[in-house]
Amino acid sequence: MSTITIDDVVKEADSFLKHNPELISASINRAESTLDKYTKPLTKVKGQFPQGHTLLSNVVQGFDANWNELGATQIEHKILKNYHQKVNFAIVPAEILSSYWAELYAEGKKPEDMPISKYIIEKELLPKVIDDLAHLEVKGVFDAGDLGTFGKSMNGIEKILADLLAAVPGTDHTPFKIPIQALTDTNIVDQVTEYEKLIPSKLKSKIKILFMSENNAERYQLQYEEQFGQNQFQKDALKTRLGKRMIVGIPGMETDDIFATTENNFRRLIDVFDGKPQITDIQKQDYKVKFFMEFWKGYDFLINELVLISNYADAEHGLGSQALNQKYYGFDGVTVP
Fold it and tell me: Which of 21, 43, 71, 178 could be joined to 59 by an S-S link, Cβ 3.0–4.6 Å?
């Protein structure tokens, strides 16, 4: 095995993948991220996800024998974006032989029980892909002109929320802003409670989860237990005081954004044909074995107006205009000039 050739590795890897056709997708799916766990899949074709939602005005009225038409339909449109990802991973087998033998020794296996291709794919390639995706899902910022630089192949949740907050009412689909004070170690429970109080009445029963950074979820838990004691109101300090909503901390998120939406509105985007992660080719070049992988990845909200985001900038409460607040939620809200 110590005199293994490049051709040996390529042939072995081809055979290994043919006998394990679901290995790549299954491994990545098992490593379910926080965002994957709390989003619903949405399947479309080739990266574009055109979506529409319908707004109906009131239709119920008192009965009399005359036709009196009541109710109007308005359809709003949004294009959701998915991102085509690739992995071009090269490895020099001679450089990992010592690690490979050490792994076999530690696990008490024979080479025939764990081929080097299995080691390369399962111990080297897949863990790094999973780690990179965990970063991209939160901190990625898409740049079509610089796709070869890590971090620029998709928009992560921080960028998605930043773009929502920057949306201009009347020209973009705006989120629902909830004004609260900047978070501190001593006010985070009160501010999350204030956030809950300001959820529009039409959505209160439909909001089951509040998302925030993992760090702020930990701050909330600590301050809740310090302020009330763990068992005074509820056993779980990672549920909110008012709606007993689950608090989900997103690992790697560094902003203070708190956001929530309805159960089916937060989506992970899956492509019909190319969505399943897979190794598409294995080639040799000089001393290297080159692995080619492709898949699609993306997150978005179907309806921005159903996304509730904390607002630390000013007192604006709602969708940015009284007309939009009335259209979606039936109240004026507070708008800031």
Answer: 71
Q: Which of 200, 197, 190, 250 is nearest to 38 (CA)?
A: 250
121 and 111, same structural domain?
A: yes
Question: How many CB atoms are closer than 10 A to CB 106?
Answer: 8
Residues 184 and 284 in one domain: no
Which amino acid is it at 192? V
Domains identified in the chain, total number: 2
∠ at Cα 149 (280, 29), nearest 5°?
45
Weakest-pLDDT range from 114-118, 210-214, 271-275: 271-275
Give me the mean pLDDT over the 226-237 stretch: 69
Contacts for 112 with CB less than 8 Å, ≥ 6 apart: none
DSSP state at residue 167: P
Question: Does residue 224 sit in the same domain as residue 321?
Answer: yes
Residue 233 lies in a domain: yes
Interatomic CA distance for residues 126 and 124, integer angstroms? 6
Residue 262 main-chain phi, psi, to 5 deg: -75, 165
Which pTM was predicted?
A: 0.83
Residue 69 placed within a domain: no
CA dist 26 and 229 (Å) reads 42
Structural domain boundaries, residue 214: 174-266+302-329
